[in-house]
Design goal:
CATH superfamily of one domain: TolB, C-terminal domain
Structural class: mainly beta
CATH architecture of one domain: 6 Propeller
Helix content: under 10%
CATH topology of one domain: Neuraminidase
Oligomer: single chain
CATH class of one domain: Mainly Beta
Strand order of the largest sheet: 23-24-25-26-3-29-28-27
Largest sheet: 8 strands, mixed
Strand content: 35-45%
Distance between the termini: 33 Å
């Protein structure tokens, strides 16, 4: 199957809406919002009506874009807590940020970062922590930290780190499989082990009890599995987000050697890793048992890209032609979108950039962000490494 084609389950579809070559060519521009950013890996808004954007710099700094300018003083600086990062390449660091749905009134927000392990048995530990905004300055965080969860990590890579709140008010947390290659952790791998939290998307309630409680309808409450688990079989869910219109949770799960995938996440589902890589058998390499697995809504091969970067369904007002389409990309610099052609069936198309003429912007894409109006931003980096100041934020515009 050509992975320049869309896919539904295992069935290839032509890269067109009607199967006759009549595709949807959408062209956009990228407006520079900020540059000289230090390894930007996440961006979100506070949902408080301030229209500020909050950028996570990988070494442990959260910066604010306010009135189209990056504030000189950081919102939060936890570099003293983050593990020392390899300047050439590292997947650890400050990786996730989410503001409480009632942030405007309670000032609570949550971060996910990598800290020293404290034991030679582990490479590092990832920490989910809660902070609050300072009482006297909305552009500053109080430095008091409350740790909610700690995850021991055997390898440097596959940390996940995405955080977001659903309409249900619960916090969703993305965890990678523990790193290395092939999820070589135990008999089945972490992702298929319901007694391990790695390789999962978790869901917790941060409002009822301290440090958190388990939603009663989580799929493994009272069953054989960790009650925090919402779904499993993930390799490295590098960015997921809710479609504000449909409520669907779209996730980009990074592949191993050959295929990248987009999943729609649902409660209790098994997304296949390490049994499957995308739509294909991985372990065993052939004749794998796919019963009970939920396959991706789209995949592409490493002939197209090399590392999926999950994005957002566009719900803004400035570009009607993008309405309802899932905007995402690849670390290699390519922009894509998915369009729903029927219930559960999606096609992928390149999102072309006017000034370039192709979907490849020529620089690495680290992540995507969304403002309060539903407009989407691309977080980029010209040179690799968590110490590079070549990061830049672009807004997708028409």
């Amino acid at each position: 199957m050509s992975l320049l084609e869309g896919s539904v389950g295992n069935n290839p579809l032509p890269n067109s809406i009607d199967g006759k070559g009549n595709n949807e060519t959408i062209k956009v521009d990228l407006d520079l919002v900020a540059d000289k950013i230090l390894a930007p890996v996440a961006m979100t808004n506070a949902g408080d009506g301030s229209n500020r954007l909050f950028i996570c710099e990988q070494p442990g700094i959260i910066k604010i874009i306010k009135n189209n300018k990056v504030l000189a003083e950081p919102f939060l600086d936890i570099r003293n807590k983050v593990i020392s990062l390899n300047p050439m390449y590292d997947e650890r660091g400050l990786l996730g940020l989410a503001f409480h749905p009632q942030y405007k009134s309670n000032g609570r927000f949550f971060i996910y970062y990598s800290a020293p392990a404290g034991s030679d048995d582990w490479n590092h530990k990832n920490i989910l922590a809660e902070y609050k905004v300072a009482h006297n300055d909305p552009d500053k965080a109080d430095l008091q930290e409350t740790i909610l969860m700690t995850f021991d990590e055997p390898q440097m890579n596959h940390n996940g780190g995405q955080l977001c709140f659903g309409k249900d008010g619960y916090l969703y947390i993305g965890l990678g499989d523990g790193g290395g290659a092939g999820d070589d952790h135990g008999k089945t791998g972490n992702a298929q082990n319901l007694h391990a939290l790695l390789g999962k998307i978790l869901r917790i309630d941060v409002d009822k009890e301290k440090p958190y409680s388990i939603p009663n309808d989580n799929p493994f409450v009272g069953k054989d599995g960790k009650p925090e688990i919402y779904c499993y079989g993930m390799r490295n869910p590098w960015k997921f987000s809710f479609d504000k219109a449909s409520g669907q949770l779209f996730c980009g799960d990074v592949g191993q050697n050959k295929y990248e995938e987009v999943d729609i996440i649902e409660k209790g589902k098994n997304y296949g890793w390490r049994i499957m890589e995308g739509l294909h058998c991985y372990n065993p390499a052939e004749n794998c048992n796919q019963s009970g697995l939920t396959l991706p809504i789209n995949e592409y091969s490493h002939e197209v890209g090399n590392c999926i970067i999950g994005g957002y369904v566009y719900n803004g007002k400035k570009m009607p032609e993008l309405q309802g389409k899932y905007i995402f990309g690849d670390w290699s610099g390519k922009l894509f979108y998915l369009i729903s052609i029927s219930f559960g069936s999606y096609l992928r198309f390149p999102l072309l950039v006017n000034t370039i003429g192709t979907e490849n912007i020529g620089i690495n894409i680290n992540s995507f962000g969304e403002d309060e109006d539903g407009e989407i931003y691309v977080l980029t980096q010209k040179t690799t490494g968590p110490k590079s100041t070549s990061g830049a934020i672009y807004k997708i515009v028409k």
